[in-house]
Amino acid sequence: MFKTARRLLVSAAAVGTLFLAPSVAFAEQAPATVSAIPQAQGQGPAMWVIRDEDSTLYLLGSFHLLRPSTGWSTPQMEQAFASADEIWLELTDADDVAQAQQLMVQHGLSPDRPLSSLLSAEDMAMLDAAAVKMGANAAAFDPMRPWLVSMQLVLVQMVANGYDPNAGVEKVLTARAAALGKPLKGFESLKEQIELMAGMSEEGQVEMLRAGLKDLNETPEEIDKLVQAWSTGNIDYIDQDMVQKMKVQSPEAYDIMLTRRNANWTRQIKTLLEGSGTAFIAVGAAHLAGPDSVQAMLAAEGIQAERLPN
Question: FRET partner for 255 with CA separation of 20 to 30 A, picked from 65, 193, 285, 297?
Fold first, then answer.
């Protein structure tokens, strides 16, 4: 399946909640309900803490789509969340459907450069074969830019294999924060995140889509292994199988979606530390793994994030 697009899914909250298929791209997602999170097996997802004299910041890597049965709750995570004065996510306006529609038209469509003018006949035939499985055809994607087509196809395939945006970490934590009256803050806006993805060069977008079309028959085992690694705190696997491969295979996407955003969030976390209180931060797992992770950038600024033992 779409290896680069899959990795982008783990680093971009918007695509996991807004873009599912041409026929449902603007459909509102069902609100997440406040319910018990399945218990993690073993140590659970990795968590870090940053402390100074009057501040405590918890860091949790997230997955934006999960199977409802995936266990990721731990007593440590629950305690950290309960203690927080505010909750920080990648963005807090992912469910703004009106804004999503506007951004889709502005950054996801290019009728003056239809997809069929960018892909070969062989590529279009593979796209049509994939579209038929979701009740559409290649013509339905023709007005869309390649980055959006890549995301839509991989999302539909993930949903078909049981992955649900409403079971994702952000949806669950958003519902909990609302129920407990905890303020929600975002490191960036939906507009900023979509503009970053749409800002990839046309050549890079086509390359990502073309590579994905060749992998359509791949089983969902790759993403299953990533989720298993995340839910058991195996950061080395996430780094090697997702972060480092993305850096080599798609350096443009890596720079745009990981390095630049990590640097932006590092600046905001430094500002948070200058204040006081407790914050719980949850961002895509890819942002907390590897040499360009948020923790590594904080360390370069003299700020240590300590991994908590489970």
Answer: 65
What proportion of the chain, given as a percentage, has pLDDT over 90? Answer: 62
Residues 6+ apart with CB under 8 A from 299: 305
* Surface-to-core class of residue 45, CB atoms within 10 Å of its CB (0-12 exposed, 13-18 middle, 19+ buried): buried
Give the pLDDT confidence score for residue 150 in this predicted structure. 87
Report whether 13 contacts 91 (CB < 8 A): yes
Per the structure block, which two tokens stand in for 310? 């489970």
Residue whose C-alpha is closest to residue 14's, from 131, 168, 204, 144 = 168
Contact residues for 195 (Cβ-Cβ < 8 A; gap 6+): 103, 107
Q: Are 298 and 304 in contact (CB under 8 A)?
A: yes
- Reported pTM: 0.89
Token pair in block for residue 277: 């209180």
| Helices (H) then strands (E): counts for the chain | 16, 6
CA distance 179 to 53: 30
Question: For residues 288 and 242, what is the distance between their CA atoms, to the nearest angstrom?
Answer: 12
- Give the integer Cα–Cα distance in Å for 144 and 24: 14
Which residues is 51 bridged to in the sheet? Answer: 56
Residue 32, H or E segment: none
| Average pLDDT for the chain | 87
Q: What is the CA radius of gyration of the chain?
A: 19
Percentage with pLDDT > 70 across the chain? 87
Helix, strand, or coil here: 56?
strand
DSSP-derived secondary structure for 71-128: --B-HHHHHHHHH-SEEEES-S-TT-HHHHHHHIIIIIB-TTS-GGGTS-HHHHHHHH
